[in-house]
């Protein structure tokens, strides 16, 4: 009987072991890689037809039509496939939220209204099942962003193939995030009427609190000595020196005017996140060198009298006005649609390469990482996405390989595994 129980336990253990995921971070690049016979989209508007790209030790070493494979390189003949820079997802809760309906899996916000000292990076979960599904879409970097309150804390850029948050960190604490109260009237609900809320009064009160905080912080930071250290004031020190950016989440023109006012009064390097109505004030944004992260371009316009396709047209309007912008998405799993939203923008006024820049090089510039990534140029990190078709076209986009800092990362994920499982169950394999 004891032998039978032992055997049963051993069988269960083997089954459990076999059920464990085999998706894990790739090892550091050891062998040079040479990609050839591909259409290379640099990310800065240039395209190299039937080109080659070489990288070693995680860095791009050569790119062009007439380069030779390095000695001992692993040569990959891509046979007409497309090479792109790794896509970058800005302003996302990726890795901070796993299942929205399960509170214990959400670590994307802190209690309180003003929390500049909160760091989203240390809460980033590298074991999230969602990450692999995002990598499969060619998205290799993300700006992990806190939410909640007025000043929610600092965001960091991470690479999406790591054992822990220390390994994942690509640029730590590059921005502080401010969420302005919305001035947009709530949608009417005849079935559940609620008393009217004075949103303007709330907006003025909350923005006044933020303004007072920054004024106090400025006075504190100008002192040579302090009787006591104020962690919240210390957390915004790099905002005043412009080593850090202030990402202000706002959509309506009146909300964005407050963002411009913060840039004027405090000299902050401001980025607007959301920017649904940015097309109405492009000259003002350009004048003050305020970049925009256009969030959720696949959506309806905010105002009822706007053109129904206004969110699709806004990228081209900002491009024409000379405003630096990129495309982003709300939430976490929604990031997988980022390339297709760029594709939509390319049919509403942007060229294909401008649309690609809106999810690669432009994003890198806004996040302050353009010296190391965002385009396929010699000396930059080998963050590379390879697709069998047009990456911005959902009909032909098929990501076949991806490299993060030269490491070939797994494109397997839970959804692909379930797909194969049920193909087998119903005899479709």
Automatic annotation (TrEMBL):
GO terms for molecular function: hydrolase activity, acting on carbon-nitrogen (but not peptide) bonds. This is Amidohydrolase family protein. Residues 1-19 form the signal peptide. Residues 339-408 form the Amidohydrolase-related domain. The keyword Signal applies. Keywords: Hydrolase, Signal. InterPro entries: Amidohydro-rel, Metal-dep_hydrolase_composite, Metal_Hydrolase, Metallo-dep_Hydrolase. It comes from the Bacteria. The lineage of its organism: Bacteria, Pseudomonadati, Bacteroidota, Chitinophagia, Chitinophagales.
């Amino acid at each position: 009987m004891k032998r039978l129980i032992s055997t049963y336990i051993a069988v269960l253990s083997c089954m459990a072991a076999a059920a464990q995921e085999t998706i894990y971070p790739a090892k550091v690049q050891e062998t040079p890689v040479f990609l050839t016979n591909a259409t290379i989209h640099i990310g800065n508007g240039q395209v190299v037809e039937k080109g080659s790209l070489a990288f070693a030790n995680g860095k791009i070493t050569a790119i062009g039509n007439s380069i030779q494979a390095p000695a001992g390189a692993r040569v990959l003949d891509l046979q007409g496939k497309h090479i792109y820079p790794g896509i970058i997802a800005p302003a996302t809760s990726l890795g901070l939220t796993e299942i929205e309906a399960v509170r214990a899996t959400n670590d994307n916000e802190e209690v309180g209204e003003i929390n500049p000292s909160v760091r989203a990076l240390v809460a980033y979960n590298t074991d999230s099942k969602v990450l692999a599904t995002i990598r499969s879409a060619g998205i290799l970097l993300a700006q992990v962003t806190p939410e909640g309150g007025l000043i929610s804390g600092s965001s960091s850029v991470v690479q999406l193939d790591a054992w822990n948050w220390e390994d994942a960190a690509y640029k730590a604490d590059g921005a502080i995030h401010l969420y302005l109260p919305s001035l947009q009237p709530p949608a009417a609900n005849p079935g559940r009427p609620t008393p009217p809320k004075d949103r303007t009064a709330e907006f003025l009160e909350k923005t006044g609190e933020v303004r007072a905080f920054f004024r106090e912080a400025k006075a504190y930071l100008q002192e040579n000595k302090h009787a006591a250290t104020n962690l919240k004031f210390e957390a915004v020190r790099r905002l005043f020196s412009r080593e850090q950016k202030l990402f202000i989440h706002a959509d309506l023109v009146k909300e964005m005017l407050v963002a411009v006012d913060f840039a004027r009064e405090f000299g902050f390097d401001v980025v607007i996140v959301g920017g649904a109505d940015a097309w109405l004030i492009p000259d003002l944004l350009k004048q003050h060198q305020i970049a925009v992260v256009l969030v959720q371009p696949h959506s309806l316009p905010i105002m009822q009298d706007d053109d129904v396709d206004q969110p699709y047209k806004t990228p081209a309007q900002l491009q024409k006005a000379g405003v630096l912008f990129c495309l982003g998405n709300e939430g976490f799993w929604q990031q997988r649609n980022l390339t297709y939203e760029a594709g939509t923008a390319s049919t509403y006024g942007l060229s294909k390469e401008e649309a690609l820049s809106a999810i690669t090089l432009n994003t890198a510039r806004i996040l302050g990482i353009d010296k190391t990534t965002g385009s396929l140029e010699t000396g930059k990190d080998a963050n590379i996405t390879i697709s069998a078709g047009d990456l911005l076209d959902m009909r032909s986009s098929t990501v076949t390989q991806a490299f993060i800092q030269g490491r070939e990362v797994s494109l397997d994920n839970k959804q692909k595994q379930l797909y194969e499982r049920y193909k087998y169950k119903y005899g479709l394999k």
